[in-house]
Amino acid sequence: MAYHINQESIQHRTRLFTIKRVNISFPDGLVRDYDLIDIQNAVTILPLDGAGNVLFVQQYRVGSRSELLELPAGKIEDHENPLLAAQREIREETGMAAGSWDALGNFYMSPGYANEFMYGFLARDLHHDPLSPDADEFLNLISIPLLKVLEMVNAGEIQDSKTLAVLMLAKRFLF
């Protein structure tokens, strides 16, 4: 017997996600209910300029109750190609576009309770090409040399999971 989803029911809807109750049967016959956050997939971009600086955004996050230093990121709109979402998000959040893109890899953000799937990209050959940011985004753009970024990671100064994951995925392209 494999894992089997017996039933899903919507418990609550918000502007950003839906909470579902999912009933699962396990291989040993145990049956259990789980709460699942059903949320859009997303992209995270590592923008690297010609001088070897990484462009970060700093913004307030309610989950940490603090401002976090993060790579630019955002939700994939309905049926949008992940690369097109990344190209839109980098322009909205940094005011830059990229002439060169590399797909870094993909991962689940918090699969124990959410289905959000993240696509990571490396953006290079940056040039000014802004789009208007989302109305609820108050972002500070910060440029940090790549080697300093690695020191910050080692010192625990970067605490955003998607940023840490994408930096790790980018290592093979950068060093």
Shape summary: elongated
- Euclidean distance between termini CA atoms: 45 Å
Order of helices and strands: EEEEEEEHEEEHH
**Tally of contiguous helical segments:** 3
| Biggest beta sheet attributes | 4 strands, mixed
Quaternary state of this entry equals: single chain
Strand content: over 45%
Q: Rg, please?
A: 18 Å
Average pLDDT number = 95
The top-level CATH class of the largest domain is Alpha Beta
CATH superfamily of the largest domain: Nucleoside Triphosphate Pyrophosphohydrolase
Strand order of the largest sheet: 7-4-9-8
How helix-rich are the residues, as a percent range? 10-25%
What is the name of the CATH topology of the largest domain? Nucleoside Triphosphate Pyrophosphohydrolase
Given as residue ranges, the uncertain stretches (5+ residues, pLDDT < 50) are none
Instruction: Report the strand count.
Output: 10
CATH architecture of the largest domain: Alpha-Beta Complex
Question: Domains counted in the coordinates: how many?
Answer: 2
Structural class: alpha+beta
List strands and helices in order, with pairings.
Blueprint: E1 4-13, E2 17-25, E3 31-39, E4 42-47, E5 53-61, E6 66-70, E7 73-75, H1 82-94, E8 96-108, E9 117-128, E10 140-145, H2 146-154, H3 161-174
Parallel strand pairs: 4-9
Antiparallel strand pairs: 1-2, 2-3, 4-7, 5-6, 5-10, 8-9
